[in-house]
Design brief:
2 copies of one chain form a homodimer. Chain A is of the alpha/beta class and about 290 residues long. In chain A, about 40% of the residues lie in helices and about 15% in strands. Chain A has a 6-stranded parallel β-sheet. A 3-stranded parallel β-sheet of chain A has the order 3-2-4, with helices on both faces. The first copy, chain A, has a two-stranded antiparallel ribbon with strand order 9-10. Chain A is globular. The two termini of chain A are about 25 Å apart. Chains A and B meet through helix 5, helix 7 and strand 6 of A and helix 5, helix 7 and strand 6 of B. Chains A, B: Catalyzes the oxidation of 5,10-methylenetetrahydrofolate to 5,10-methenyltetrahydrofolate and then the hydrolysis of 5,10-methenyltetrahydrofolate to 10-formyltetrahydrofolate.
């Protein structure tokens, strides 16, 4: 962590995800090449049921990243995006031996929930850990693909040498895709874990008990210096679009940096690691194993 | 909660489970009678793979309790208790339409784990919420049988009017059967939830942040007044055998009672509610629904 210079405000270490993502991609490239040489190119399918521009940009960025590491990625657009049609597509992909991993991309249309459809994905292909079986296996400590974003938080902390055993971790947010699974992973790493959320009384005080604070609330600039204990490590999972179209996290960096010991940037923190892990999961699935 | 008399030490309210268990049994009796009148007597199977006296006494007590409410309960002893033989028994019971609910009783023989076998139970028959699918559904908020002990903690708190929304709950223990599921249920009830465990630094201080403290550590007299904030409600999940053979909890009641606002007794607290809920789960399974 940063050494603090006398006479000026200390500034949190920037816990970049770029070098880690590059490391993961290098490993994936090597493993994908071996598989391809043996006759099986690892492949992942992304099911999209929205015409939201940001989402389409994001899934195309996964396809490009996949191509670079030797993984085939295909976008399957479901039109019209009814629950039945999405379910039928997932069932097809589940049965298709040439597809190793499947991602059901959110957002889904109104009235269609990831939770209600994800059980159609077999655990072995559920590379973003969305299904009940994946969630249950993760909770019980059995082999499973963890949601990539949650796992990215953990690998980013490990990469930067942040110790977790016996430490107080606070997770802000209790979503099925980030908050809950990252809490399970922190618990497995022997942290003392608190899950706080919109109904939490005095959220800033609860957040300030954290030595490691994971923020996944989905609101730009939500976390400020009043939420951060001096020296705490802050992981910003947020991916919000600012008024000018730029990507911003859930943490007001300018406010938090003078207080925190470390902070993951947005962009360039959790995001690139998440994408790299999705690709690694696809390769692991093609190898017939889980990633962890 | 208790009104505090001047001039003498206040004493925690005793949060008995007996009246609640009786209420649940009355409901179960009525529903079981309706099912039986319609031609289907609800039935549960308990798979036992140990000759431990305490366990055999416990499963026989479930059978007796089941008989009283009109539920058929059968003990299936697996001999020799290998993983293969237990798995084969679970597979048989999963396929047997006359069996509505199945419990795989712990402890299991060395080298055999509940987690590795429980996936053989279909969620619809997994009335003690042991399987990965049940755990995942619980985490994702989908219909599922919760582990009966975890649910008993929640129903006991509700029965005694303990408000949870926005409150700070601390769970001591992170087992798959109690600590983790009760944390999920507390979170669903909008509590701010901390899970603490053997690796937690300064456990007493963490426990003292609780307005509701759930103790599931499996060690007699583990929790004392140093773990309890004044007025906190304490739920004692422990079922330890004392030197004289009596049942004792994880909480040193004499130490905690002057401090706590409420305390569940052992015996007579979580235990009877757990047994009653197992029977209710069996009836719900026979009705073709989940309990929650």
């Amino acid at each position: 962590m940063s050494s603090r210079a006398c006479g000026r405000a200390s500034v949190a270490d920037t816990l970049s995800g770029k070098a880690l993502a590059a490391e993961i991609r290098a490993d994936v490239t090597e493993r994908a090449a071996k598989l391809t040489a043996a006759g099986t190119t690892p492949s992942l399918a992304i099911v999209v049921a929205t015409d939201d521009d940001g989402t389409l940009w994001y899934v195309r960025s996964i396809v490009k990243a996949a191509e670079k590491v030797g993984v085939t990625a295909t976008i399957h657009t479901v039109e019209p995006p009814t629950a039945e049609a999405i379910g039928a597509k997932l069932t097809d992909l589940a049965a298709d031996d040439s597809v190793h991993g499947v991602i059901l991309q959110t957002p889904l249309p109104e009235g269609v929930s990831l939770t209600d459809l994800s059980h159609l994905l077999p655990a072995a292909k559920d590379i973003d850990g969305a299904s009940p079986v994946s969630a249950g296996n993760l909770t019980l400590g059995l082999p499973a693909f963890a949601p990539a974003t949650a796992q990215a938080c953990m690998e980013l902390l490990a990469h930067h040498g942040v110790e977790l055993s016996g430490k107080r971790a606070v997770v802000l947010g209790r979503s099925a895709v980030v908050g809950k699974p990252v809490a399970q992973l922190l618990l497995q790493a022997n942290a003392t874990v608190t899950i706080a959320h919109s109904r939490t009384a005095d959220l800033p005080a609860v957040a300030r008990t954290a030595e490691v604070l994971v923020v996944a609330v989905g609101r730009a600039d939500f976390v400020t210096d009043e939420h951060v204990a001096p020296g705490a490590v802050v992981v910003d999972v947020g991916t919000n679009t600012a008024a000018d179209g730029s990507l911003v996290g859930d943490v007001a960096a300018a406010s938090v940096e003078p207080v925190a010991g470390g902070l993951t940037p947005v962009p360039g923190g959790v995001g690139p690691v998440t994408t790299a892990l999705l690709l690694r999961h696809a390769v692991s699935a093609a190898e017939g194993t889980f990633d962890r």
